[in-house]
Amino acid sequence: MVQILLDWLRSMIINGERTRNISRWINLVGNSMEDYAMRSPNLETPSKDIITLRESSAIVCELFGYAANSILHLNGVYPEETFERVKKHEHRLFLSKNVGVKLYLLEFNEKISEWLESGRLHKIELLIMTKATNEVLQSWNFSIETHGEIAENILREKSDKEIMNEIGGVLRHISATFTFLPPLNEPCIFHAVAHLDEGVAVPFKWKENVSKSIENPDMETLRAFNTEIHKVGISVSFKKRKSDDQIHEVIDIICR
Description:
This protein is of the alpha+beta class. Helix content is 32%, strand content 29%. Strand 4 and strand 5 (91-96) form a beta hairpin. Helix 2 packs parallel to helix 4.
């Protein structure tokens, strides 16, 4: 499997400890399912039950784009004022206004949409790394499983309402990771990585074999998403805080 990285780094400057106040968390996590919605044109029309391969691929790309924006916003990797709240179908979502981030995700999603339709894409990673040393602090993994044979005329049944509710559930779960992820206390960059079949042609400005891992990470599995054509499993791995190990050692000593 070839690991492809888009060669475009976005600096994420953090002023001191990340902004993670309780009021913002309550505002995001406390909202109901109606606080999120897909931006896909396919979901602007009345509910329908039939979904095609192309529509499924577009929905997965939309999910990744929204998830990436949520991750950047909730971690405070960009200033609060660089995000805007967008309302769709009575749902609210925070999207980056940063031109570089918007273009980056647009270009990345255009390519992964093609690979999803051809069945050559197996996983997407969003890596948050320190700017100084490129150490990975968080690795968000979106594993992709395709149901059955890939064919242009493949059709599955799933209503738009079900899809929107599932996406809302995923985004709410991402919001809840605020409660356990260690704060990012230094300037960082992020990378998007696509895991593909061998021999897949990639744009010349993308790099190969640059995915990095976290040594002895903590990991949490989040809610999965399923279009009935593509199933997306989501998890986050993150670097432990030194204080966590020290706390466990103290508890160990006390228990003895």
